[in-house]
Design brief:
Structural class: alpha/beta
Distance between the termini: 25 Å
Number of strands: 5
Helix content: 40-55%
């Protein structure tokens, strides 16, 4: 089992390979390797990321089948099912790190901005459930000078939303809080750049 710092370093090194185009995971699994994974899995990290088709965590971090426990939902928001998935992986597989991975030009962020700017045109009830989870991160920023610069607003909202999701995981689950207090788990935030392929990890 990797420590949190070892797991983070493995993710960072993998992303550096991805950015350079020097991937280690280019070959297909053999039948034997795939069969072995059918019996058990031992992921070394949990990634709560966005459903955006351009941000597959395994590729972004250059990891193989069975390496990451990935939870994807539009806007990398935290709802009970996501919390339960993180709890499951943290307890079952002793993963020591959870990465909340946001990304530039996030559609869920834009949908939230659009909804707040045009409340007379609400999205569907199901999409609204996602917007409502992103809303606090965006509303706060729309009270500042950023409201006049939508590009900057979106950029800051992506990061604010990541911080919010990290905070919810750190303080919204007795199971995760206990693991964190015992030093068995850390939850960190990160942002993927669609332009460069680089993942920036946040210290907070």
């Amino acid at each position: 089992m990797l420590t949190a710092q070892e797991a983070l370093e493995r993710l960072k090194v993998g992303n550096a390979r991805f950015v350079k185009g020097e991937l280690a995971q280019q070959n297909q699994l053999t039948h034997q390797e795939r069969a072995a994974l059918a019996c058990e899995q031992n992921p070394f990290a949990i990634v709560l990321g966005c459903s955006d088709s351009r941000v597959p965590a395994e590729m972004v971090f250059d990891q193989g089948l069975g390496d990451l426990f990935v939870i994807r939902v539009a806007g990398n928001v935290v709802a009970p099912s996501q919390v339960g998935s993180v709890e499951f992986a943290a307890e079952r597989y002793d993963c020591a790190v959870v990465v909340v991975l946001g990304h530039s030009h996030c559609g869920a962020i834009q949908a939230t901005i659009d909804t707040l700017m045009h409340p007379e045109q609400p999205p569907s009830a199901n999409l609204m459930s996602i917007v409502n989870r992103v809303r606090p991160s965006v509303e706060m920023l729309m009270q500042t000078e950023l409201k006049s610069d939508l590009k900057k607003l979106s950029t800051h909202a992506v990061r604010s939303n990541v911080f919010s999701s990290v905070n919810q995981l750190r303080h919204g689950s007795a199971v995760l809080e206990s693991l964190i207090e015992k030093g068995k788990l850390i939850v960190v935030g990160a942002e993927y750049s669609l332009e460069t392929g680089q993942v920036t990890f946040f210290d907070f």
